[in-house]
């Protein structure tokens, strides 16, 4: 099979904000995925989506499958850009389609769907102006986030606020920096968990990963902020969380969290792969914070491979399972 790997390459650019390229992939990740595809017996074309005339490239270079990890170029629907091109050209690709990718990048709209499906998610409010009145039903502490960003962009420990003055100052700051709506939601105290969903014949929940931030107190960060994600493992910054996979949960809670991750994957309409982030409250409620249909696949650092390794998979198995799932889905669509 001829497979094209579509990606955005992480760059260094002093003229851009520090978190500008956070969603993009490293050379290490791109090399690992392409090597795994080759080791599974396929050929690989590397396609940086920043190149000009991408539409013409795919029109003139037909491939059997696209392994898509691209974040797109810009805008609120950027993660759906490459799938939209591939859909138009009738080229199969791995992962979720345009609708799910556009939806998941809109945190507030995703949360509305979760609430409609009775999936626990923190109560929230969207601020489109700096001076909107706070919903009186929301309870402090609150956390303030850009509504259309991934990889914890725009989020630090200071985004957790405990009064209206700090809240409105942070809302104004984020609106100015990111030029978009601001999501304000109740900050859930509890265990940080993440669950990978992998489809290979059927959708399964991988072993739950628990991220313990108690060893990061020196850093001042105590949840998955941008600095925590970007510099995870840095002893210099004190950003050394402890991972437990499987998570330290009783069987009933483990089952509930996995079922909730599967329901979230299905509610958002994801295909092949996703990762859902949770906060497990003290009373045992697994609150969905967000779902990522394009989870990181760095073989050493990303959470999704860690969970797959705990399930007994090798890195090549992960990549081939994603390709196989997309191929089976494509075959089912083509059946008479």
Low-confidence stretches: none
CATH class membership of the largest domain: Alpha Beta
> What's the rounded overall pLDDT mean?
94
Specify the helix fraction band: 25-40%
| Measured distance between first and last alpha carbons | 23 Å
Number of domains: 3
What's the overall geometry?
Answer: globular
**Under CATH, the topology of the largest domain is which?**
D-amino Acid Aminotransferase, Chain A, domain 1
- Sheet-strand content, in percent, reads 15-25%
Describe the structure.
The protein is of the alpha+beta class and 336 residues long. It has 3 domains: 2-95, Rossmann fold; 123-186, Dna Ligase, domain 1 (2-Layer Sandwich); 191-334, D-amino Acid Aminotransferase, Chain A, domain 1 (2-Layer Sandwich). It has 10 helices and 13 strands. It has helices at 27-39, 54-60, 81-88, 98-104, 107-116, 164-178, 226-230, 251-267, 303-310, 315-334, and strands at 2-7, 43-48, 65-68, 124-127, 142-146, 160-161, 182-186, 191-199, 203-205, 209-212, 242-244, 273-280, 286-292. The strands form 3 sheets. Strands 8, 9, 10, 11, 12 and 13 form a 6-stranded antiparallel sheet that branches. Strands 4-7-5-6 form a 4-stranded antiparallel sheet, covered by helices on one side. It has a 3-stranded parallel sheet with strand order 2-1-3, sandwiched between helices. Strand 1 (2-7), helix 1 and strand 2 form a beta-alpha-beta unit. Helix 1 (27-39) packs across helix 10 (315-334). It is globular, with a radius of gyration of 20 Å.
